[in-house]
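Review form for a predicted model. The reviewer records the input and the model, then writes brief findings.
Reviewer: anonymous (R2)
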Amino acid sequence: MIEKSPFYFDIDKTLINTTQLVKLLIQEVAYATGKPVENIRQLFAEYSKTLQDTTDFVHLDCIEFFVEHGFDRESLEAAFNKDAIYQKSVYTDAMLFLSLLKESTRELGIFSQASEPWQIFKLEKSGLAEKIIERSNWIIVPRKMQSQEIARLPRGAVLFDDKLEVLEAVRAQRADIRCIWVNRAGVHAAAGEDLDQIDRFSPELLEQLEDVGTEG
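Model under review:
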């Protein structure tokens, strides 16, 4: 029996436009606290410098950082909890694609490198959690290129990710995984020439992948 291959998605810059998200967060924090946008932007930059990697961002720690610099906690929490910020930051094509997939019987999951609380917060606030419902399929870890994390991907999965280095690491370990590079910026890279590439999600892509499956 042929079973439909699971689809697993990265989050940042694959499903969510993080550049847009940070911009909206800065604007909302400035509005909620009555502080100039430039001051908020500078503090965000200072907090980012405390991180080993940008994927180590934790919203609760960021709020604490601002509180330590004299900001009101309640105003900060109100700004970070604004659903519209996250909803407006989801790529429209990604949300439409996931809406189509929700109607199918295909297993959907997440494969993300980040702080788990922050990613779950974004998935819930953005509405993406309503599309990728099964939380046991959410693989959210601090360093996802480690072999033990790659091993957690289900057999025969299709993986969508914007980072070439992740896809290279996955296919080096898992020949059964079909890697698709979400190259929204249209970057030319020799390393990605032999990878399937998309610049957006589309109904046509779903039609192309509809017959992709594994023997069960």
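Findings: The chain has a mean pLDDT of 93.
Further findings: The CA atoms of residues 10 and 199 lie 14 Å apart.
Recommendation: see findings above.
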